[in-house]
Specification:
Oligomer: heterotrimer
Shape of chain B: globular
Distance between the termini of chain B: 29 Å
Order of helices and strands of chain A: HHHHHHHHHHH
Number of strands of chain B: 9
Strand content of chain B: 15-25%
Largest sheet of chain B: 6 strands, mixed
Number of helices of chain B: 9
Chains: A mainly alpha, B alpha/beta, C mainly alpha
Largest interface: A-B, 38 and 45 residues
Strand order of the largest sheet of chain B: 5-6-7-3-8-9
Chain lengths: ~260, ~250, ~230
């Protein structure tokens, strides 16, 4: 039995095993995401509360800014879109992880033979799905309320790409910290304290890209590319930090260091 | 150190700031052995369980699983043991079958074997409720569901935190017989419980965690006047209510 | 860390600072467009550089803390984060004063202002999480510091394409050499002060950790002397 373990742990470090590890992580992430979405489909709690909240935000925005001149609207509409994403995102993230905390299921997942990165990817994916669902209300709503937001309807493909990219960035950063707070039995107030400054760069890129979309600039694709690059950065760092932030240092290293010190 | 112990803890300490919860725990867990862990509230039983499960790094000391001190809580290691917490840790909106199926499929994706879900449910007497959502289960049923999930992977080591609390008399008998089967299979079981009577009926050895160390241990057949009597003496060393908290 | 070094640094800074002040106010020509207010540049720019440096130090230390579970790295990261708040406050106060003289407006939402402000917010969040977070939140705070340090250039670039009116770096490069000469002593004095404060704060944190351990050791010995002898070397 001991030999079997040795070969197993040895195999994990090999190059073939690394690609294997990636595949395992992706497959497990997919299983976890489907599992979460299946639960959501049973009672629609997240979808309904988040979309109701989106609707309220949209109505408030409409009431506050309906008198805005058409020339000022291209400056204001991007802010409305991404502020509502930021608000709904914080709400969704804290609810997703509160649910895990209520039934202590995150802990069960952490002791199961599941790659921790898979948990990160799955939760980020679910957050993204909910956020996109909410954008299905916000974007057409803004296009109806503000004439300057018409390009959303005229250039649907670009709009979809923009919204997907912007929400992905938010989900990537947010999942790491929401999970960290949920596992350290911390206070959820801290989530917004952490989330808003950190997601700002991605939201700024999204803001710039949205404005150029509304104004019909050719630079839109450049900005979208930059937004995509920040997404990649956010996900790489998020995935890398997820396990150390949630459960701490992999023990083998500290154990090895301790034995070296003893010698 | 007994070389054949599946799990071996040496000098495990854990402090949170100035609060020392564990101060040098030495504990061995053999294959085919059921060890009961008792201790007052706040003695650090759950902290110790988290360290054994690799969820919490210890401040000092070594933890050896199957001869290796490295990779505590790595995925390969996690595939070989299972934890049943005092909360059921099940998804309330999923049926019993779906709850187990998720973990079974996660195991398969990780390249390790899993028992058929149906067999596991039957074994714990939940076959009749297989398609009911876990949210409608009683606490005792949830406890059994959590145990069924833990047994899916035929764990070499089973860590149980207060598994008796929510169970009725038949439930306890069932748990006792399941643990007996696991012991026969060669699994090592660590059992945290306040229920001395239940522990005496299943455990081979009972250890007392007190003041952050293993303060005493009684084995079946160690004492002339019987295991139950020995355990009662051991439990008598526990401080009165509130003393452990004051000490910490 | 050495006990005397921080005080040596503070002493050196104390000697350089008066020299730098007289250099700035008496020997450097007054800038024609902005007038005397431009003098604040000699404090604003070094503070901003030091703040960026400390932010990077904090992020790197947090990374080491996470990977190696190092108490020293954790102490450095805490100290650096708190000093980012202090120097950042200096930057955010001197900046608008200079800005008011240059652009007639204290705050113009340009890249450097916004990225400094956001950086300050990130590290304020770090300090908040460390203060109010539950057990285990030190790792969360470390993640925050790493993200924060990485965010800095991204924010800078993001705001830059959003809007730019700040005097760009080539303006600073074209300053008369006498102005540069006055900048260096100020930078050295402020840097030495920050380093000294950093070291003192790190020492405080390390003392705190040592105190905790001594406390635990004492309790440990009192509770079970023979056990302490057996595991004392661990």
């Amino acid at each position: 039995m001991r030999d079997a373990t040795l070969t197993l742990s040895g195999a994990r470090r090999g190059p073939r095993a690394t690609t294997n590890l990636g595949m395992v992580a992706l497959r497990q992430a997919w299983l976890l995401a489907v599992n979460d979405l299946r639960q959501e489909a049973r009672d629609l709690e997240l979808v309904l509360t988040a979309s109701f909240f989106t609707l309220v935000v949209l109505i408030m925005l409409g009431m506050s800014f309906s008198a805005l001149g058409v020339s000022a609207q291209p400056l204001a509409v991007p802010g409305m879109l991404w502020l509502s994403v930021a608000f709904v995102g914080a709400l969704t993230l804290s609810r997703i992880f509160n649910r895990e905390r209520e039934f202590d299921t995150l802990r069960a997942m952490l002791v199961a033979p599941v790659e921790r990165v898979s948990i990160y990817l799955a939760k980020a994916f679910v957050t993204l799905v909910i956020l996109l669902g909410c954008c299905c209300i916000t974007v057409p709503g803004l296009a109806l309320l503000f004439p300057a937001a018409q390009p959303f309807a005229e250039r649907p493909l670009e709009t979809v790409a923009l919204v997907v990219m912007g929400c992905t960035a938010y989900a990537g950063v947010g999942t790491l910290f929401a999970a960290g707070l949920a596992s350290s039995s911390g206070k959820n107030v801290l989530l917004s304290v952490i989330l808003y400054p950190l997601t700002m760069p991605s939201l700024l890129f999204a803001l710039v890209a949205t404005r150029s979309l509304l104004e019909g600039h050719a630079s839109f694709t450049t900005y979208l590319g930059q937004l995509t690059a920040t997404n990649v950065l956010a996900f790489v760092v998020g995935a890398w930090l997820f396990e150390p932030v949630l459960v701490g240092v992999p023990q083998q290293r500290s154990a090895r260091r301790a034995s070296r010190r003893r010698r | 150190m007994s070389a054949d112990a599946l799990l071996s803890l040496r000098g495990i300490s854990k402090h949170f700031g100035r609060l020392a919860v564990l101060r040098g725990v030495d504990l061995d867990l053999q294959r085919g052995e059921i060890v009961g862990l008792i201790g007052a509230n706040g003695a650090g039983k759950s902290t110790l369980l988290s360290i054994i499960a690799g969820l919490l790094p210890s401040s000092r000391g070594t933890r050896t699983f199957d001869g290796s001190a490295e990779g505590a809580g790595s995925r390969t290691e996690r595939a070989r043991f299972a934890v049943v917490s005092h909360t059921a840790q099940t998804y309330p909106r999923l049926t019993a079958t779906e709850n187990l199926e998720l973990f079974a499929r996660l195991r398969v994706q990780a390249g390790v074997a899993s028992e058929p879900v149906g067999t596991s449910l039957e074994r714990l007497g939940l076959g009749y409720a297989a398609d009911r959502q876990a949210g409608t289960f009683s606490r005792g049923m949830l406890q059994r569901l959590a145990l069924a999930r833990a047994l899916l992977g035929r764990p070499e080591m089973l860590l149980l935190d207060e598994p008796f609390t929510a169970l009725d008399r038949p439930g306890r008998a069932l748990l006792a017989s399941v643990l007996d089967e696991e012991r026969t299979r060669g699994s090592a079981v660590l059992l945290i419980s306040h229920d001395l009577e239940a522990l005496v009926s299943v455990a081979d050895r009972i250890v007392l965690l007190e003041g952050g160390v293993i303060a005493g241990s009684v084995g079946r057949g160690d004492t002339a006047d019987g295991f139950a009597e020995g355990v009662r003496d051991l439990a008598g060393k526990m401080p009165a209510v509130g003393a452990a908290e004051a000490h910490a | 860390m050495n006990k005397i070094l921080p005080f040596a640094f503070l002493g050196a800074a104390g000697m350089i600072f008066p020299y730098s002040v007289q250099l700035i106010f008496l020997q450097t020509p007054i800038e024609q467009q902005m007038g005397t207010v431009q003098k604040i540049f000699y404090f604003h720019v070094p503070l901003a550089w030091i703040m960026m440096l400390l932010a990077v130090v904090c992020g790197v230390a947090a990374g080491i803390q996470l990977r190696r579970d190092s108490k020293r790295a954790e102490a450095i990261s805490i100290a650096a984060a708190e000093l980012v708040l202090v120097t950042g406050l200096g930057v955010l106060i001197t900046g608008p004063i200079w800005g008011h003289a240059t652009w007639g407006k204290p705050w113009t939402w340009d890249a450097r202002q916004v990225s400094t402000g956001l950086l300050w917010l990130v590290f304020a969040a770090y300090v908040l999480v460390r203060h109010y977070g539950a057990a285990g939140s030190e790792r969360l705070a470390a993640g925050l510091a790493i993200f924060g340090a990485i965010d800095v250039p991204v924010i800078y670039y993001a705001v830059k394409i959003w809007k730019t009116t700040h005097p760009s770096t080539d303006v600073a490069g074209s300053l008369p050499s006498s102005m540069w000469a006055a900048l260096w002593p100020a930078l050295i004095a402020l840097l030495l002060t920050s380093l000294a404060l950093l070291m003192i704060r790190v020492r405080q944190e390390m003392t705190d950790v040592a105190l905790d351990e001594a406390w635990i050791g004492l309790e440990h010995d009192a509770a079970s002397p023979n056990l302490a002898a057996a595991t004392g070397d661990a």
